[in-house]
Write a structure and sequence with these properties.
2 domains; alpha+beta; 12 strands; Elongation Factor Tu (Ef-tu), domain 3; four-stranded antiparallel sheet; single chain; six-stranded antiparallel β-barrel; 30% strand; flat
């Protein structure tokens, strides 16, 4: 397991880019975690750190946990998580870790508990089509139909899709894009939705997969650059047209000045000319 952080899902909003793109994002509040213990290969057989998140009252702790926190001389933490690490020398007991560990990450994985739906039927839980809604079916329009075979095997196989408890399970959404990070306010903005309801706890980790696709920010920059190129090229063409028009106009005026005035084209009552 790669190192991660525990956060609280605040809700959803949307983020606008300079090109006009609107992206739906989920806002997560991530409080800094404190390293409570460092486990080495000599002690455990593997390198790992124990990190504590969130605050809790002393009255809600057991005696064992009170003794553990007093021994470490740290404030009590609500959630304790253990993460295996490669370079154990980088982590020291008492240090805090926050959103800075995701500074250069474009994609991350999020684990959370889905919203509980209670006891659900097969049409809602497994997307069954149900039985006929008209003739030949009586009071069992939304039922799942038969579940077994005959006397042999004489049982319902494990894993059979049937009605039952829906939701309220831990699920991981992989490769969620990081749109924006705000370390000052301990907020991170992720593209799309994540499991769980508002104010539910989520675990954020570095992605396991290597993602080659372009991010929304990169796409936006590409669109803006293309638009700027078009504007520049249009401006150059317009300037060229205006300069050509000015040249044509100046050449026409020069021609008019060079041409001699013919007497037959002038009126006789013109005072400027002395007719003989």
């Amino acid at each position: 397991m790669s190192i991660g952080l525990v956060g609280k899902k605040i809700g959803m909003t949307r983020e606008f880019f300079s090109s006009g793109i609107s992206v739906p994002v989920t806002v997560i509040f991530v409080e800094k975690g404190r390293i409570l213990d460092v486990f080495t290969k000599e002690k455990r057989g593997y390198d790992a750190i124990k990190v504590g998140f969130g605050k809790i009252k002393n009255s809600k702790l057991t005696k064992q946990m009170k003794g553990d926190f007093t021994k470490k001389s740290t404030e009590p933490k609500k959630i304790l998580k253990e993460f295996r690490v490669k370079n154990i020398s980088e982590y020291k007991e008492g240090n805090e870790i926050g959103l800075e560990i995701f500074k250069d990450e474009k994609f991350i994985d999020v684990t959370a508990k889905t919203i509980g739906k209670g006891f659900a039927g097969v049409m809602k839980r497994h997307n069954f089509s149900g039985l006929r809604a008209s003739h030949g079916v009586s009071v069992s329009h939304r039922s799942h139909g038969s579940t077994g075979q005959r006397q042999d095997p004489g049982k319902v196989f494990k894993g059979k899709k049937m009605a039952g408890h829906m939701g309220d399970k831990f699920r991981t959404i992989q490769n969620l894009e990081v749109i924006k990070s705000d370390p000052e306010n301990n907020l991170i903005f992720l593209k799309g939705s994540i499991p769980g309801s508002k104010n539910s706890l989520v675990l954020i980790r570095k992605t396991k997969k290597t993602i080659a696709r372009a991010t929304t920010l990169e796409k936006n920059d590409k669109i803006v650059k293309g638009a700027n190129k078009k504007i520049v090229s249009k401006k150059v063409s317009d300037d060229k047209k205006t300069s050509d028009a000015k040249k044509n106009k100046s050449s026409e005026t020069m021609k008019i000045k060079e041409e001699p005035v013919k007497k037959e084209n002038l009126k006789k009552d013109d005072k400027k000319w002395n007719w003989k």
